[in-house]
Amino acid sequence: MLEWWSRRGEFGERLLSALRAYHEVFFAEEENRIRPALQLALEQAQQRASQVSVLDLLEELSQGVRLEEGFETPELVLAPSYWGTPLIIYGRATKDRTIILFGARPREASLVPGEVVPDALLRSLKALSDPTRLRILRYISAEPLTPSQLSNRLRLRSSTVVHHLDLLRLATLVQFSIAGHGVERRYSARPEMIAAIFATFEAFLGQGEAIEAQPIPAEAKSSTE
């Protein structure tokens, strides 16, 4: 590697050639496949931005992250991400500009081209297949709880509880609220998402490969509000 770095001109040309080849054989086609979903997600986000507050918009786009206070930035840039769904990716581009990438892959779509089982459905069913996670959902359906509180009720280590909460979060079955720096997260169930899972499952079983999207009402509120 050091030898190649010492010949940066030749190395740079070869690297550029490899990246162009990669784009031609994979990404150019993949870009055409995901562009409609990204464009639709962007248009829907722009429409919601004119209807709700910034914090409510972030909660919707992040599929369950509620920033209650302490979030301030002079400029916020929101952009759709296909591969990052359902996670959000954020960072500061400059001192005054914060960028957040939000999940934009439709629930009925799969990350792998040609795969008929939607990723969101598979993640959700896996998350629901564990008795500990079902108990967690039962507890946080009644009231928002922190990982420490859940650990006491379940008599499990906090790290184990956080692991289960992470899987439920990836399945978009829970939301968590962040009330400020140094405050432990509080988790609550998202009943509208649980209903959406079974609607998607019914559509998948009833229509084979022609799965229709099951939209989630934008006005649906979390159980913590």
Can you give a write-up of this model?
The protein is an alpha/beta fold and 225 residues long. It folds into two domains: 1-105, no CATH class; 107-225, Winged helix-like DNA-binding domain superfamily/Winged helix DNA-binding domain (Arc Repressor Mutant, subunit A, Orthogonal Bundle). 51% of the residues lie in helices and 13% in strands. The protein has eight helices and six strands; from the N terminus they run H-H-H-E-E-E-E-H-H-H-H-E-E-H. The chain has a three-stranded mixed beta sheet with strand order 1-5-6. Helix 4 (119-128) runs antiparallel to helix 7 (158-170) and helix 6 (147-154) packs across helix 7 (158-170). The longest helix is centred in the first third of the chain and has 42 residues, at 8-49. It is globular, with a radius of gyration of 21 Å. The termini are far apart. The model is unreliable at 209-225 (pLDDT under 50).
Order of helices and strands: HHHEEEEHHHHEEH
Specify the CATH homologous superfamily of the largest domain. Winged helix-like DNA-binding domain superfamily/Winged helix DNA-binding domain
- How many alpha or pi helices? 8
Which descriptor suits the 3D outline?
globular
- Could you name the CATH class of the largest domain? Mainly Alpha
Per CATH, the architecture of the largest domain is Orthogonal Bundle
Low-confidence stretches: 209-225
**Largest sheet, if any?**
3 strands, mixed
How would you write the strand order of the largest sheet?
1-5-6
SS content category: alpha/beta
C-alpha termini separation: 55 Å
Fraction of residues in helices? 40-55%
Estimate nothing, just give the exact number of structural domains: 2
Extended strand count: 6
Rg, please?
Answer: 21 Å
Mean pLDDT: 84
Strand portion? 5-15%
CATH topology-level fold name of the largest domain: Arc Repressor Mutant, subunit A
